[in-house]
Amino acid sequence: MINPYDIIPKYYQLANILRQKIREGEWPPRTPIPSERQLETQYSVSRTTIRQAIDYLEKQGFVYREHGRGTFVSPQKLQKGMQELTSFSEDMLRRGIQPGQVIQSIEYLLPPEEVLQRLELSPNTKVLRIERIRLGDGNPIGLQTSYLKLAEEQVIHREDLEATGSLYRILQDKFNIIPTEADETLEVTLATPSEASLLQIKAGAPLLLNERLLYNQNREPVEFVKILYRGDRYRYLTRLTK
Amino acid sequence: MINPYDIIPKYYQLANILRQKIREGEWPPRTPIPSERQLETQYSVSRTTIRQAIDYLEKQGFVYREHGRGTFVSPQKLQKGMQELTSFSEDMLRRGIQPGQVIQSIEYLLPPEEVLQRLELSPNTKVLRIERIRLGDGNPIGLQTSYLKLAEEQVIHREDLEATGSLYRILQDKFNIIPTEADETLEVTLATPSEASLLQIKAGAPLLLNERLLYNQNREPVEFVKILYRGDRYRYLTRLTK
DNA sequence: GTTGTAATGTGGTCATTACCAGTTATAATT
DNA sequence: AATTATAACTGGTAATGACCACATTACAAC
Lengths: 242, 242
Hints:
The structure is a homodimer.
Chain A: H1 10-23, H2 36-43, H3 47-60, E1 63-66, E2 70-73, H4 82-86, H5 88-94, E3 99-109, H6 113-118, E4 127-136, E5 139-148, H7 158-164, H8 167-175, E6 181-190, H9 193-199, E7 206-215, E8 221-230, E9 236-241
Antiparallel strand pairs in A: 1-2, 3-4, 4-5, 5-8, 6-7, 7-8
Helix pairs in contact in A: 1-3, 2-3
Chain B binds a DNA duplex through helix 3.
């Protein structure tokens, strides 16, 4: 079942197998999964590897351990990782809402000073700004403005973005930029007339402002994004882990 | 330097030593920490232990690894874990604001149906409700309503709460309930007249509603809490990790 | 029946050894 | 001088073996 000659690590293959059993309901929430010694013989790998696989699943929130008792399947909750959190599309799909977007602009320009500082860039540096209107079931939900720090040769075209619909997929597949961490803030603001007309609400209506600074796998800031959500149509979800 | 006869695990002691060096600035951000082989000889522990310690620091966000290059000190960011996130007091102190609270009520009662469901309780079960006004530098910032699932013998008195100021400290020290996970939602609402008067704002002013379901170390829900923050005086901070 | 205790099973820690997989500096080659 | 190979790093994966700490069960003693 475990392929030792694969480039994919054993613990990773094993974690996928176990995750599958949890997702398919073979092991319901709160039930113990086989003990580490059992899995050791069952899959013919060392306990080191077993523990590494379970470590991985625990970090993802699929299982939890109790010293002296066993390892148990976590009750399904929000179940969100970075991938889903940072992706508007996946977030919406998860909630059963059809995502969409209208790309308003995509161009290189000199961003506000604040953005340069957040992206750890020197003054007078141009960055890529993408302005989008986010849709849920066809109706406007949010206004998103992204500022991206990209190398010269890393070019994003309007068509790419329209085709995939996901900025993060492009970053990952084309530029090997893997989002690994993000700092976020959320606060309340009131809609300006222009924002209001784009979101099809009244000026002065309450909005949820979500700011995010995204880091790549080397902990370098790559994107600073502001999203203005309609207060009446959006709810922010998150899971905190110790 | 590492005490082998201590009950405290070696990897944990080692992690503390390394974290200390980072906090004190001995190892500035982006600089490599000693390699795993170097630490191995330096502290006379096995590489297993070294890696376990670094795993721990990495999970806490103090360092990051780059395959083939080394392990590096993370640039300081929000630096928040569960502890700080779930504790209003610590959150405020971190921002340089003097926290405070006015306990409005603390009593056992039948909560709304929604709360019973969230706490996985059967109908007609009484829970402890705590209503508090949260203060920042003496001024009202938020209205907090907590519903707690506690055993018969787990009693919280008004005096305890007033003395420590921290509900989570009581849960941890007296009842051995350790918050390990939480699901949160954030959305915008408008202040009702009564809420407005408590928060000293106008009725209809925008508020940030933060709901949280808190789990203990066994992944059982223990607290459901709603916090209504003044939109003009509060900003929610969080850090997402992959 | 109750209590204490030993056995057993669970995850937690740690050392040792080996090799693989990226990165980078250095030496050899051209 | 530029290029290419190599060696010497780095962290990543894996097996093996040992013992510890905690929880539960079985059972003997009372």
